[in-house]
Amino acid sequence: MGSEAGSRSSLTKPFDPEEFRKHAHRMVDFIADYHRDIENFPVQSQVEPGYLQKLLPENAPDEPESLDDILADVQSKIVPGVTHWQSPNFYGYYPSNGSTAGFLGEMLSGGFNIIGFSWITSPAATELEIIVMDWLGKLLKLPNEFLSSGKGGGVIQGTASEAVLVVMLAARKRAVEKLTKEQGISEFEALAKLVAYTSDQAHSCVNKASQIAGISIENLRLIPTDVSTNYAMSSKVLANTLANDVKAGLVPFFLCGVIGSTSSAAVDPLSELGDLAQEYGMWFHVDGAYAGNACICPEFRPYLNGVEKADSFDMNPHKWLLTNFDCSTLWVKNPSLLVDALSTNPVFLRNKQSDNNLVVDYKDWQIPLGRRFRSLKLWMVLRMYGSNGLRSYITNHCNLAKHFEELLRTDSRFEVVAPRVFSLVCFRLKSPANDADNSCSLSAKLVDALNSDGNILITNTVLGGRYTIRFTVGASRTELRHVDAAWKVIQQLASKLLKECSS
Amino acid sequence: MGSEAGSRSSLTKPFDPEEFRKHAHRMVDFIADYHRDIENFPVQSQVEPGYLQKLLPENAPDEPESLDDILADVQSKIVPGVTHWQSPNFYGYYPSNGSTAGFLGEMLSGGFNIIGFSWITSPAATELEIIVMDWLGKLLKLPNEFLSSGKGGGVIQGTASEAVLVVMLAARKRAVEKLTKEQGISEFEALAKLVAYTSDQAHSCVNKASQIAGISIENLRLIPTDVSTNYAMSSKVLANTLANDVKAGLVPFFLCGVIGSTSSAAVDPLSELGDLAQEYGMWFHVDGAYAGNACICPEFRPYLNGVEKADSFDMNPHKWLLTNFDCSTLWVKNPSLLVDALSTNPVFLRNKQSDNNLVVDYKDWQIPLGRRFRSLKLWMVLRMYGSNGLRSYITNHCNLAKHFEELLRTDSRFEVVAPRVFSLVCFRLKSPANDADNSCSLSAKLVDALNSDGNILITNTVLGGRYTIRFTVGASRTELRHVDAAWKVIQQLASKLLKECSS
């Protein structure tokens, strides 16, 4: 029997090393073949809601099934329902860029399968995280106050949503304690006064964090932006809002600035925001989920100026630094405020090292208790590509986006609707002269047509009240030829739509 | 050059299929060898705090390094800092039981590397999750109201901490809306009245969820337990507490019952708790993080009776159902209450299928936005072991624990301090007659000695005010011979300690 036939045999033990070896090699080949063939699939899955229920049994099997049978089902039933985020033709949202190194790091983490909530549960997991967060912080030229050598520290969260939530909870705790002490009011009266600030371009996770933290929806200020600042927050508008709120007896406690907004990669004026945060005693968080990554390149680092005035900064290497999802890197200047807000010390987790404050226990820096050994993948990415390799990777994407923007400008049927700073291009298909009321909603139709066609995937947003197409270069394997091919299919489908619209 | 020498070459592209194939095969062998050799390492890592900083450079490298160099570092610098949760000699906490199938599912998820926040981002991810949560729900004989066919539904969370948080947030939202409407008070006045209930044996995540949800620490009732109920919550004590709170103008809104408490695997009287929850209009959540898994076996299912009165139920297949961490399975009867509390609908995520309510978007059932394709690993575990295989797996652990308990009872120096129900045994090393004040704290010394010795790992808790040793059989590869060897080393070290103590 060959090795393939061999894997028809079912598993006899839960984690036998030799059965593991054989089956895992088989899975490596399956995944490698998937990546080899990935451009054969429509990027956006074309299935209809409910498709899978028709294909799978109603109950789990009683007896073991073979890996070959399962992989056959993956190929015929699962893959058609997958939207191929790793395709070089994926230009939607902000990408999830995987890599060989990131994948290997995840494998190794899965191989150890430890739960690193406290230092004692696997010292290497905590200590490697401290070290790689310092490494990455240095690549970003974060001030020393954010690093472990400067009383700050980094922690890997799952997502930017969790990062903004934990810092908001730390800010809430600090603000409530101050108010109850100074004004002799209850914690709930204090909570009612707290106001959080961000721009209307900030990610919805700020809104979600506020909901969870119990901040009234009326006390979340989404500072309006417009084209005059390229959709960045105006510190003048923010200053006015703050002054009015304080006059009304409210208490500003949290400000989230953005570098690289989700809709158009807008960059808030961090330094001015930092000054206002300091003036009003607010926690200042900087969300750089996507564009923060670019700041490892000297040409982009200036966009991060002002971060030295922040209390916390977060970005997602899983978006644009080749680290497989999930990996969101959060640095804080004062980790003890996180611990104050999030620690629990049940008897069943007590140990000498924690009791004596000799170690970091990351359980107190996050929402969940358990945590994977995620630092391994970030460590492997940093080592296997090197910081120069990672810089080239980012720069190359930005150059490809610039190239795409130039192509757009050669075709007068399109308009670029926000300045391109990083690797995101926002554009529209202009309505023809005889369609002044935009009844054809051409851009929306173009997005639908492109995603149904399957050659590329793009997504949409609204900017300045108008439907906008987003084209992000950021998949790991996107090359010049892919961008050129994407432009060709965009032009073709646009021509078809314009013809239908004018007929 | 052989394949090993070949992997000295560094990566040239971020995700080249053939480079991936070569390097991933190398990693499979590394991990298989680790598992083959796992019993050679001390189970509990023996490093000192700060060990790793001395071994790694201060900065990320500029240029790429080879996989072989990295794996050499893993072996010499990381592995000594790993506490080997996958060792068959791991009896601490509740285990994190990995398996070949769970690992393969994680690999495949990492291979696709999709972000499944909305149905449209990979329909298979959402639909497979719905299906396997129904499969597992049926194995547990959950009432139909928890399944997708009965208007309920399941969702995979990362951890039980997240599960209890999201249901508490749903309960908070419902309770606050009711109070503001009925009593004409503000949302903060309503929040101040809310009281949550659980036992003093519940996991610390209930405490943490309350903190996050803004429930005052004075309004979290940890109902005291004692040996008279084997550390289960007394519904009588709960009923008295509820009556007093209501008399004081407070509003009970959330009750968490436990099947398999962390300290001693105590089981709360779910049915009686459910009746009280209904009487007071509370959300009733059942946390079965560890022992819930056992309820796929007919002999253990009676412990789950009463779950039909619950609003939500959660357990962790990553603890005891061979699914690699993280995988916490939460079922709710009314998912729309989760969505009410957690949904955001930013313009940049809008799509036809979501707008038309044709699909489930799991982003609104959880804290983070992004989510991995975790259903793959649960699906593969259910298929590759089959439900009969999984039942045998659980039963075998419980039999091994029973065997260990019997060994303990043969040695009068030890006492079993709580009845064993599942695979956890709680015991103490009795103090000798001349040490009535327990000055030797023999049990604590025994745990320290065992973990320093390295042959096995065990952990501790406090029960009824007394230090207690916990011995959980639950690692995937633990066999009878391991338990017998563990008992031997426990006896040996106990003899040594008793000798020292009496001398």
From TrEMBL, chains A, B:
The keyword Calcium does not apply. Keywords: Decarboxylase, Lyase, Pyridoxal phosphate. The modification N6-(pyridoxal phosphate)lysine is found at residue 319. One of its GO terms (biological process) is amino acid metabolic process. Its cofactor is pyridoxal 5'-phosphate. GO terms for molecular function: carboxy-lyase activity; pyridoxal phosphate binding. It comes from the Eukaryota. It holds the Pfam family Pyridoxal_deC. Belongs to the group II decarboxylase family. PANTHER family: GROUP II PYRIDOXAL-5-PHOSPHATE DECARBOXYLASE, MIP05841P. This is Tyrosine decarboxylase. It comes from Physcomitrium patens (Spreading-leaved earth moss). The gene is LOC112280879.
